[in-house]
Amino acid sequence: MIYSFGTICVNTQHNQLSINGEAVDVDERILKLILELLSHYPNHCSKADLLQILWPDTVVSEWSISKLVSDARQTFKQHGFKQEIIQTLHGRGYRLASELGDQLKISQDDASKTTNVAPRKKPFFSRQRVMLATVVGFVLLILIYVIANRGSSQLQKSEPAKSIGRLLWVDDHPENNLTEKAYLENFNITVYQVTSSEDALTSLALYQYDVVVSDMGRNGEVLAGLNLLKAMRKDANDTPFLLYTIVLSQAQQKILQEYEGQGVAVEPDKLYEMVLPFFPDASPQQ
Question: What is the CATH number of domain 165-278?
Answer without folding.
Answer: 3.40.50.2300
